[in-house]
Amino acid sequence: MAAGTALVTVEEFLRLQPPRAGHYELHHGEVILATAPKWGHQRIQDRLAALLRSMAGDRAYVTKRCRSVRRRSSRCGRRMSVLH
């Protein structure tokens, strides 16, 4: 959003129509258009997750998951987390 525009609430954010490409994220009331991760980035995430799984063994559960407050889209922005 451009400077000087009003901030939006979560309810208003959830009513937005999905963009043609990428996905919207809500940052402190400001709507941000985030592009989908590139193929190479996703591949690196997969390799890191596999490495973490092999190192953690039975001590932890490694997963890739969607970000918390964002618009749903077919391409999910992902981050890695290790649950102990």
Summarize the structure.
27% of the residues lie in helices and 26% in strands. With 84 residues, the chain is of the alpha+beta class. Strand 1 and strand 2 (30-34) form a beta hairpin.
Helix content: 25-40%
Largest sheet: 2 strands, antiparallel
Radius of gyration: 16 Å
Q: What is the rounded distance between the termini?
A: 38 Å
Q: Count the strands?
A: 4
Please write the string of helix (H) and strand (E) elements.
HEEHEE
Residue-averaged pLDDT: 76
> Beta fraction of the residues?
25-35%
Count, helices:
2
- Which of globular, elongated, flat, extended, rod-shaped describes the shape? elongated
Number of discrete domains = 1
Summing up helix and strand content along with how strands pair, one would put the structural category as alpha+beta
Major sheet: arrangement of strands: 1-2
| Unreliable segments of 5+ consecutive residues | 67-84
What does this structure look like?
This protein is an alpha+beta fold and 84 residues long. It has one domain. The chain is built from two helices and four strands. It has a two-stranded antiparallel sheet. A hairpin with a 2-residue loop joins strand 1 and strand 2 (30-34). The protein is elongated and about 45 Å long.
List keywords for this structure.
single chain, 84 residues, alpha+beta, two-stranded antiparallel ribbon, 2 helices, 4 strands, elongated
